[in-house]
Design brief:
alpha+beta, three-stranded mixed sheet, single chain
């Protein structure tokens, strides 16, 4: 696969980290991507990814019965495991 055919999931010279991935997904889901804020609190074994979006977009990030949020958490878990880490997603209201 050449660089020109990549999907945009690479940042700079390498693959996205967990924080960048959550930001990328959230911005694709919401109506106000400029109000998406993602911060990472790194612990000894676990990183906490905090996601904040506009109040109007909160439902889009959570989804019906929390399905969208659960899907984001599953993707985050897979990426984190691939990097040898553990990450938790917190959606800030």
């Amino acid at each position: 696969m050449t660089n020109s055919s990549r999907s945009g999931l690479e940042s700079g010279g390498g693959v996205m980290n967990a924080k960048e991935l959550v930001e990328y997904i959230a911005k694709a889901l919401v109506d106000y991507p400029d109000q998406v804020k993602v911060s990472e609190i790194k612990g000894e074994k676990t990183s906490v990814i905090e996601l904040s979006v506009a109040k109007e977009d909160l439902g889009k990030v959570i989804g019906k019965q929390g399905r969208t949020a659960r899907a984001i958490r599953v993707i985050l878990g897979a990426v984190s495991a691939n990097l040898g880490k553990h990450s938790v997603l917190e959606i800030i209201e």
